[in-house]
């Protein structure tokens, strides 16, 4: 979803000549991982590319530098570990990756990849079921339906394909894939192995921990995997319950509400905070509730905890005991067919041998500095030990893990690199989608009050966009928070058709330090959805001294 941070140099600047097609990533995955063959600009370029890859693969088979078995060992082969491994080979580092489960981690096997397959189905179902929408386009659909097992197979097959492509991409470049659970046993030493088999010990100049996360299940909730389950189980789509409660209204809960309601379920949200979608910009959350919640078969309880959930047994329904989040007094008991626990994720960091390096986790997360270097209990950076992705808790997104991994590889290759996490976009793949990058309006106002500057907010509507109207998809807005004195973009939030794709112009602008007064001069094709952002940028008013614009060079 983001450009490779290999192009980022110290201070956040970017070398334009460093952005290459091979650096493009989709959901944090390289093109090689998706099995896409790159077309070279010329036969000579293609030959050079093949020679470079061959040299990298050959180099990875040699002994590691400085007497180490490897230059880099990565514990965890999810999207973060995969991105780091491929970039390390590109840098000429002898690299190994250790995986105790399956290649691809949460994103590929139990997260963003299979969930997008289910959401693709829900999107098609919504179109077919919306008779008014179809008639407005001149289309007639007699009926719509689905086969549950075929939908589930679509999600599973996609995960299998991406997992295979990930594995093959690393093997083709010479990354050693080691099977087993990895443990740091000492300075630059890792032990790995499977239960029932002898352990192996290897040395590495640098070590990256990329072990990811697992679903977080609060106390009092009994998981049976059938009627009370986490997103790991839900993605298998073993059933479509008539009535399902979803505990938590964040990204995971919202996306599954989209899937279940499209397939015919009634949904009840249980949210501990006083409003739904608490992690979103409040204005976007309010509009999202009007579009994604209110018109659908969804009701909700806010300001309550699910203190106890009992799976369905002996013909009895799932029982959910709700208590007031503040007073802890019992409110009511829900009886539903199933319950999905979408209360977030917890870092998977146990058994990594962190105590051997005097490292103490914080709520399970491994403490790191701005360069992803692990910090010990005394607040000192542990030499040659890094942690990326969900395990460090900085930003629990697959593409963030990949970007962090690439940043670490840049550092250990001799180029200082600090990733700007405020430039990393996020998306919720509902229908319509929600996306965001940077600060929410309340966060921006808080920062402005603390640092003594003003902020401005501009908005544009999808109802004014020709392409959106052609699709009869005019619901949605784009919103930008910025500094009128400097033109700095602080945050952008989008709710509407293909919002997840549109956000990247804003995230790249933040990453590159592009100001509003400059980006409003760029050209967008007409008619396209990108003009939603074009109008957003043009609506901004910068009161400070405008930056000089260099004269164009005559063609």
Total DSSP E strands: 25
> Roughly how many Å apart are the termini?
33 Å
Main sheet: strands, sense, barrel: 8 strands, mixed
Structural class: alpha/beta
Low-confidence stretches: 1-59, 547-555
The helix tally amounts to 15
Proportion of residues in helical segments: 25-40%
Mean pLDDT: 88
Q: Indicate the overall shape.
A: globular
Q: C-alpha Rg, in Å? A: 24 Å
Content of β-strand: 15-25%
What this model shows, in words?
The protein is α/β, with parallel strands linked by helices and 555 residues long. The protein has 15 helices and 25 strands. It has helices spanning 43-60, 79-90, 105-110, 112-129, 131-136, 148-172, 231-234, 251-262, 282-293, 398-412, 441-451, 466-470, 499-512, 516-519, 531-539, and strands at 25-26, 29-30, 70-75, 95-99, 176-179, 181-186, 189-193, 200-209, 213-215, 228-230, 243-247, 266-271, 298-302, 304-310, 318-324, 330-336, 338-341, 345-347, 373-375, 381-387, 426-428, 433-438, 456-461, 477-482, 489-496. Strands 3, 4, 5, 6, 7, 8, 19 and 20 form an eight-stranded mixed sheet that branches. A hairpin with a 5-residue loop joins strand 15 and strand 16 (330-336). Helix 2 packs parallel to helix 10 (398-412), helix 4 packs antiparallel against helix 6 and helix 4 crosses helix 8. Mean pLDDT is 88; it is low at 1-59 and 547-555.
Descriptive key words:
555 residues; alpha/beta; eight-stranded mixed sheet; 25 strands; disordered N terminus
């Amino acid at each position: 979803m983001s450009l490779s941070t290999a192009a980022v140099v110290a201070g956040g600047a970017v070398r334009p000549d460093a952005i290459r097609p091979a650096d493009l990533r989709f959901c944090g995955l390289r093109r090689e991982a998706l099995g896409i063959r790159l077309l070279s600009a010329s036969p000579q370029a293609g030959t050079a590319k093949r020679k470079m890859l061959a040299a990298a693969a050959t180099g990875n088979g040699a002994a590691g530098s400085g007497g180490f078995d490897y230059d880099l060992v990565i514990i965890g082969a999810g999207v973060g570990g995969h991105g780091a491994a491929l970039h390390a080979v590109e840098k000429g580092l002898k690299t190994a990756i250790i995986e105790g489960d399956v290649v691809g981690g949460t994103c590929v096997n139990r997260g963003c990849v299979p969930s997008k397959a289910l959401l693709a189905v829900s999107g098609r179902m919504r179109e077919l079921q919306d008779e008014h929408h179809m008639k407005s386009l001149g289309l007639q659909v007699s009926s719509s339906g689905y086969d549950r097992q075929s939908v589930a197979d679509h999600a599973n097959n996609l995960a299998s394909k991406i997992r295979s492509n990930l594995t093959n991409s690393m093997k083709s470049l010479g990354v050693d894939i080691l099977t087993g659970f990895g443990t740091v046993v000492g300075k630059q030493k890792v032990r790995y192995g499977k239960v029932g088999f002898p352990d192996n010990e290897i040395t590495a100049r640098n070590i990256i921990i990329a072990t990811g996360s697992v679903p977080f299940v609060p106390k009092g909730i009994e998981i049976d995997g059938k009627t009370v389950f986490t997103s790991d189980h839900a993605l298998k789509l073993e059933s479509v319950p008539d009535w399902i409660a979803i505990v938590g209204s964040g990204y995971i809960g919202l996306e599954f509400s989209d899937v279940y309601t499209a397939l015919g379920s009634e949904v009840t949200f249980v949210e501990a905070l006083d409003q739904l979608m608490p992690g979103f910009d409040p204005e976007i959350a309010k509009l999202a509730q009007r579009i994604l919640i209110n018109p659908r078969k969804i009701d909700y309880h806010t300001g309550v905890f699910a203190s106890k959930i009992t799976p369905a047994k002996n013909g009895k329904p799932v029982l959910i005991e709700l208590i007031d989040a503040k007073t802890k007094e019992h409110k009511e008991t829900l009886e539903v067919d199933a319950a999905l626990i979408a209360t977030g994720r917890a870092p998977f960091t146990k058994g990594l041998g962190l105590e051997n390096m005097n490292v103490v986790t914080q709520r399970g997360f491994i403490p790191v500095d701005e360069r992803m270097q692990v910090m010990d209990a005394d607040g000192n950076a542990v030499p040659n030990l890094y942690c990326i992705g969900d395990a460090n808790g900085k930003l629990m997104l697959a593409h963030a893990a990949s970007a962090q991994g690439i940043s670490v590889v840049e550092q250990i290759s001799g180029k200082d690199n600090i990733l700007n996490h405020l430039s990393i976009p996020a998306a919720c793949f509902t229908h319509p989608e929600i996306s965001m990058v940077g600060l929410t309006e309340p966060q921006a106002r808080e920062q402005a009050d603390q640092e003594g500057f003003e902020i401005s907010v501009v908005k544009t509507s999808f109802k004014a966009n020709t392409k959106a109207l052609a699709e009869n998809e005019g619901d949605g807005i784009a919103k930008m928070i910025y500094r009128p004195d400097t033109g700095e973009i602080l945050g952008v939030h989008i709710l509407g058709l293909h919002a997840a794709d549109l956000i990247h112009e804003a995230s790249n602008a933040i990453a590159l330090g592009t100001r509003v007064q400059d980006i409003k001069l760029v050209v967008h094709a007409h008619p396209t959805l990108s003009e939603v952002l074009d109008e957003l940028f043009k609506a901004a008013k910068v009161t400070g001294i405008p930056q000089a614009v260099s004269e164009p060079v005559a063609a």
